[in-house]
Amino acid sequence: MPLSDSRYALLVIDMINDFEFSTGKELYPFALEAGKQISILKEKLKAKNIPIIYVNDNYGKWQSDFRHLVSHCVEQPVLGQPIAKMMCPNKEDYFILKPQFSGFFATPLDLLLTHLKVDTLILTGVTGNMCVLFTANDAYMREYKLIIPSDCIASETVDINDQSLQTMKKVLKADIRPSTELFK
Amino acid sequence: MPLSDSRYALLVIDMINDFEFSTGKELYPFALEAGKQISILKEKLKAKNIPIIYVNDNYGKWQSDFRHLVSHCVEQPVLGQPIAKMMCPNKEDYFILKPQFSGFFATPLDLLLTHLKVDTLILTGVTGNMCVLFTANDAYMREYKLIIPSDCIASETVDINDQSLQTMKKVLKADIRPSTELFK
Amino acid sequence: MPLSDSRYALLVIDMINDFEFSTGKELYPFALEAGKQISILKEKLKAKNIPIIYVNDNYGKWQSDFRHLVSHCVEQPVLGQPIAKMMCPNKEDYFILKPQFSGFFATPLDLLLTHLKVDTLILTGVTGNMCVLFTANDAYMREYKLIIPSDCIASETVDINDQSLQTMKKVLKADIRPSTELFK
Amino acid sequence: MPLSDSRYALLVIDMINDFEFSTGKELYPFALEAGKQISILKEKLKAKNIPIIYVNDNYGKWQSDFRHLVSHCVEQPVLGQPIAKMMCPNKEDYFILKPQFSGFFATPLDLLLTHLKVDTLILTGVTGNMCVLFTANDAYMREYKLIIPSDCIASETVDINDQSLQTMKKVLKADIRPSTELFK
User: CB of D59 within 8 Å of any CB in chain B?
Assistant: First the structure.
């Protein structure tokens, strides 16, 4: 596959999440399925030394850390606990706290990617029509190439997810093949 | 004093710091003096419910948290330990990790200040001609009013510190009266 | 209507345009219809002293001016000439040249809106699923309220336009009533 | 000289200027001297196909163009007319309108430099302790290397100019040799 000249980073968006919000129950089963695929993909990419970046909501607060959010989701009996346990970040993983939908808005993400010499982003996580899409849009305007594996993003409904994938394929020229077909 | 219509925030810049860098020894005694004044000022401002924001270098990394930096400086026998112990952040304090000299560059600081409805920044910390000055410049361009108490910033030499204060007074119209004359 | 406490600005996106690009022919008739409605809306808003901001592509160049683009479209026999003539900017109108889809990306638009004390944007122009949508997304993250009159935006097909309007209504909470129902 | 692996751009800051402001008279003679050197340097760099970027204040307006500013300064009997005539931009030159001191703040300058594949900026213009310094600071944080020829910047007094040059040499590691020693 023609991915060989790129420098990649895997972005895992809003998966470390208690899912304790109004539409969390609808989203959760889809997120769990995506989470399983992301976990497999993450291991494959780690073996190739591709950096993993957790991009997470700071919930309008600047008083708590990402590590606290991880503890909250892993140790408390929240809806998102199984996902958080499954894809718990490692010491060498990066994280970005975002105050808004897009991982690029008012964060050092672009700077981090420049330092890592990344030109192609592999976007995964939730939700396909909100934080993933907004991050993808901003990435496209900053001229990153996009891989958004169709089995690694989730939204509240299958239709919304599919529509968002089609939009990202068409408008942002994203490669949306499932993760099983990538990095073989 | 004519400060009554403003909404303030206290920024404490790079004081949670191990000072284990080449010029740390020169800077440390001045930083310690400034730290004592900042601590007194911080208590005065806390009593008025003015938010405290720690603005700290992330040392080019996005893999560790501010709370880890605090632990490192408070618990390890580093040069900066006494200062870190003296001005250890509280639970309700905010923090911003900055990848560069200015607290505004590639961070959510401006967004946080907007949410807190702040229009006047009280800048303190180290060093007067680097991170404090760069943060002050960026604050000025974003139309924040500036209070930079002369006894609450430190640089490697008294001359450099004084020159920087005069620049911030002249170019940025900063109020540079010592903290003892403020918020009485 | 409950719009009375807001400060508005009308954004006219990419309508001063020669339409001499590959899909310009498909887009043109829809743009012309939208242009007629935008022109009527513009007069209504001007009578209320609401600022008009032309947001236009700089086509990757930083060597020519907006006024040159206006001349090019008004004076040359280009496909977009009738629209450019119909909605030619006035002296007191503002303009922003954008290097990317979003009017906010790498431009002073946010700063201009802050100076004008605007909290609600009326978005119009082309295309509904590209520059209008990207600008709307960025506006939403900056906490502007959005009015996107359904008869004042255009895309290459009616379906794409409708889908984009529904997305902006749902995700960005935009008011998408037609312009004829607004500012009566 | 070890400049050969870099891609340069010459920035000419605020020289297209009517100088009709309170301290314009003090600044003007220094600016005229600097302008002569910048003009010579500009020709030398143009011969090497190095891009020239005029960075100019938009005076808080987004209603007039750079070309109008050029006309205003070249055709009206303003104090800055001789400088504007001497260093009038050519068709192929770039320009950036800045709403604040720094050429990077709320402008597409960084994007333009990325497109031009520039890694080293040659900063010239006025004033040494305001727009030149603020632009230099922002350039340094974005990791551009800096050449700031001492004879090509001007401030209201020689002392202020020298102090600013020394600061940029020390803090920003700028090469401040006079233009006569560069690009031989």
Answer: no
